[in-house]
Structure formats: structure tokens, C-alpha cells
Specification:
By secondary structure, the protein is an all-alpha fold. It is built from 9 helices and no strands. It is flat. The relative contact order is 0.07.
Amino acid sequence: MRLFRPARADRDDDDTALLRAVARGDQAALAAYYDRHAGWLHARLTRRCADPETVREVLQDTFVTVWRSAASYRGAPRRDGGSGGWLWVIAARRLVDAQRAYARAERAEQAERTERAGHVGHGPPGAEPSAEERVLSRLEYGEVGTALRRIAPELREVLRATVVDGLTTREAARLLGIPEGTVKTRAMRARRELRAEIDRLRSSHVSMGSMGGLA
């Protein structure tokens, strides 16, 4: 009697075979893998980013990364989405990279426009920063950025994965190579230590201000 495996298992096995072929330089295998996953990946990226051009670029960059790193794929449990989970982590990182680059370019263009207009520090009306820019600026600059750099690297990388990159606990665990429970524990510790560092920085600024007033 012939036994049939579930369709999902067949799909995971087929993906693994395709990625092994991609790792050997098989372009037809990459095309087949693209045809299998590009549709849902495009839809999911579109939910994260409203700009169609950025989504197209990220989609292309994701499969370029697959072409270059297919040999690193060692299989993934079906509870983690199989190769689709691995692919989404790549795509999420590419999307964040693209949004960071866009935010930097926007800040540079804004600075150039205000300088030309002779209004340095006073941007033109309607030039409100995007939500992405605000998140990135808070995490990379100012007191939050300073506090973030002071906490342990393993805590910092969890915050970046879950807050900046917007990954789920499962995706972050896969990306960082640690259990989901560890991601949750480190995320809680990171937020606690980040708040403590910010409080210390603010206390330090208040003390310095008081000393300046006595001078």
C-alpha cells in the first residue's frame, strides 16, 4: 500500500530540494522557487510598506540574497514556516534596510532644502518625518540611541530585531539563532535596562544643568 505524506510536507521537501539546487548554481531552480513564493511574499511586504517601488526592490533583493546564501539553508521546522519562514526573515531585513536608506536620503534632502532656503532648523510646512524616520531617529540618535549603545549587545540585537526590524518573536528567534523564550526574556531585560539607562542620562543632564546655574 502506498503512503501519502501531507501536501505541506511535500512542499517543504520540494523547497529544500530547490534550495539545494540553487546552492549549486541552478538558475532554473531559483526561478521555480521564485514562482512558488514571490506572490505571498509580495503581498506580505505590501502590508508592511505602502510604496510599490520599494516593495519591488525588496522582493528582488530578497531573491538575490537567496541566490547568494542558499547554501546556508539547513532546513526549518514546519512550525517555523519551513523555508518560507527563512525567506521572510531575509525579506524583513531587506525591507528595513531599504526604509533606513530612504529615511537617511530624506533627511539629507530635507537638510539641503532648508539650507538653500536659509531656514536651517526650520523645515518647510508639511515636512513631517514619517513614522519610520521617527522610530529610527529615536533608536539611533539622541538619548535613546546613547542608552541603547550602553546595554549588552545580546539585548540590543533583540530590540533591533523586534522593534526596528518589526520581526515577530519567532522570526527574531530564527534570525538570532536563539529560542523564542530567550527572545522574550531578553526583550524584557532590554526594555528594563534601556529605561534605567535613559533615567541615568536624564539625571546626569539635570545635575550638569544645576552645576552650570551655580557657575
